[in-house]
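Take a specimen:
=====
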Amino acid sequence: MWGKCARNQNKTKKHHLTSVKVLYELLTSLGTDVTNLIFPKDDVVRVYWKHSEDNKTAWLNVNVAVVAYVTTQPRLNIYEYLSELGGLFLM
């Protein structure tokens, strides 16, 4: 579950396009940032893109309270084990 909460929500996505219309829609969309265009063939373009930083709809599946709880609990457990060891863990 930790990986689900802490993963990068805005990974770069890759699409292979052959339609000029779809490429134009992706380039002019306000919710996306195109980071790279590669033309491996004359009729194919590889598009790398991310959601815009101001696009809040991309982050709807992140619950900050759950993420804080899930990442804090293991830290508290580690501190508990370290306090049992006293100063031995520093050696």
